[in-house]
Amino acid sequence: MRFDRNLIFINNELSNKAEVIEFLGSQLVQSGAVHLDYVQAMHKREQDIGTYITEGVAIPHGTEASRSLVRKAAIVVVKIPRGVEWINGNKVYLAFGIAGSEEEHVDLLGELATILMDADQKEKLMAAESEDDLFTRLTK
User: Fold this and answer.
1) Which is catalytic among the residues 35, 43, 61, 105?
2) pLDDT for 58-98, tens place per residue?
3) How many whole angstroms separate alpha carbon 97 and alpha carbon 52?
4) Would residue 43 show up in a list of annotated catalytic residues for this protein?
């Protein structure tokens, strides 16, 4: 998996789902992975389908139509220690913003699902206390 240490964050300031998506999207834009309009597509995807995937985790990403706005595949990760309410009272503590072309997008989702389906691995990610620690746990 292509994790970049510069795209791993711990952020206590995020207080709702929209702020999390905006933060992830802006990091993808700043890294050069996507055009600015991709951030709005991430919000649209969340409105249309939702990206909460498992207890405590969401994977915000753009719509299928927005894949043309992707310049290069990237994943940005933010751990939210206090969590934010996402849907139906469920909180998210770990969010992965992804961007990829058609094939890359599916591959990124699959690789993340594999990591997150491993209960031990997911627990280690949730327990990370620093950005370096989170990066190390993601890349092992």
Assistant:
1) 61
2) 999 999 999 999 999 999 999 999 999 999 899 999 999 99
3) 12
4) no
